[in-house]
């Protein structure tokens, strides 16, 4: 999400953290990492670094994690977390991961089809033909990363100027396995804080998933960004940040009590 999301740092204090098994939060243990592990970690980070009214901004899997955290905070987990999660005062969810197993299955099929498209095959051929590997190996590795995620974009050519990230495959697999045949739609009704959901119309994650989340959450609004896939902070930057700023201004009262 860096450096683009630093746009919000002009007006707000932002706290980023690398989730367990990703980025610099390496995990070399043998114990399975579950969605519950991630919720516990988020509760500890919020307790330590964000006292007072809590605003959560989650992107992709982080959007689903924010919802899972909120479900625990508003409804009480079993077993309860220690420390108890702080109830979010508001949440902004950008291109959140699917809220049901069926939506996730649809997403995986769509992404696989996109990644095998002629447009992305052409991008792969270009990076081989232009001799970048021999001229600048670092730039070559950067370009390979961008092509590896090009299927997330409305236009694969927009997969540029991205910050590479690392997620341990074992951890990712363990987390999704722990969710089982999940369906959060009915449970989300107990999360009563204001919620903004922003979803690109061309996102491989089904727009229907975010529509279902917005319908289930009692105080949620969905904004759909035309011409954007799963990375609106690249493909629809102005529209995304305008939507976020409107939401933060409209809900400023919930963080000032």
Under CATH, the topology of the largest domain is which?
A: Rossmann fold
The mean pLDDT is: 93
Helix content: 40-55%
Using the alpha-carbon principal axes, give the shape.
globular
How many domains, as an integer? Answer: 2
**Secondary-structure arrangement, i.e. CATH architecture of the largest domain:** 3-Layer(aba) Sandwich
Low-confidence parts:
none
Order of strands in the sheet with most strands:
1-2-3-4
CATH homologous superfamily placement of the largest domain: Alpha/Beta hydrolase fold, catalytic domain
CATH class of the largest domain: Alpha Beta
Find the structural class using helix and strand composition: alpha/beta
Short description:
This protein has 257 residues and is α/β, with parallel strands linked by helices. The chain contains ten helices and four strands; from the N terminus they run H-E-H-E-H-H-H-H-H-E-H-E-H-H.
Verbal overview:
With 257 residues, the protein is an alpha/beta fold. The protein has two domains: 4-106 and 168-255, Rossmann fold (3-Layer(aba) Sandwich); 108-158, no CATH class. It is built from ten helices and four strands, in the order H-E-H-E-H-H-H-H-H-E-H-E-H-H. It has helices spanning 35-49, 61-75, 101-115, 118-129, 132-135, 137-148, 169-179, 207-216, 232-235, 237-250, and strands spanning 54-59, 88-94, 195-200, 220-225. Strands 1-2-3-4 form a four-stranded parallel β-sheet, sandwiched between helices. Strand 3 (195-200), helix 8 and strand 4 (220-225) form a beta-alpha-beta unit. Helix 1 (35-49) packs across helix 2 (61-75) and helix 4 packs antiparallel against helix 6 (137-148). The longest helix has 15 residues, at 35-49. The chain is globular. It starts with 34 loop residues before the first helix and ends in a 7-residue tail after the last helix. The mean pLDDT is 93.
């Amino acid at each position: 999400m860096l450096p683009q999301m630093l746009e919000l740092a002009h007006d707000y204090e932002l706290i980023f953290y690398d989730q367990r098994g990703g980025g610099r939060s390496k995990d070399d243990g043998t114990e399975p990492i579950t969605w519950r592990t991630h919720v516990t970690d988020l509760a500890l980070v919020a307790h330590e670094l964000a006292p007072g009214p809590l605003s959560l901004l989650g992107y992709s899997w982080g959007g689903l994690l924010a919802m899972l955290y909120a479900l625990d905070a508003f409804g009480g987990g079993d077993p309860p977390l220690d420390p108890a999660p702080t109830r979010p005062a508001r949440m902004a969810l950008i291109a959140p991961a699917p809220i049901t197993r069926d939506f996730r299955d649809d997403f995986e099929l769509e992404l696989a089809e996109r990644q095998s498209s002629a447009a992305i095959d052409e991008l792969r051929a270009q990076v081989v033909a232009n001799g970048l590997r021999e001229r600048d190996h670092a730039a070559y590795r950067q370009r390979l990363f961008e092509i590896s995620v090009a299927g997330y974009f409305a236009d694969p050519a927009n997969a540029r100027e991205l910050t590479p990230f690392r997620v341990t495959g074992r951890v990712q697999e363990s987390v999704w396995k722990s969710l089982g045949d999940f369906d959060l739609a009915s449970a989300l009704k107990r999360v009563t804080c204001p919620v903004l959901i922003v979803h690109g119309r061309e996102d491989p994650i089904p727009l229907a998933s975010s529509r279902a989340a917005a319908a289930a959450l009692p105080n949620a609004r969905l904004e759909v960004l035309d011409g954007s896939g799963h990375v609106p902070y690249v493909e629809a930057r102005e529209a995304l940040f305008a939507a976020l700023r409107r939401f933060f201004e409209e809900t400023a009262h919930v963080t000032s009590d």
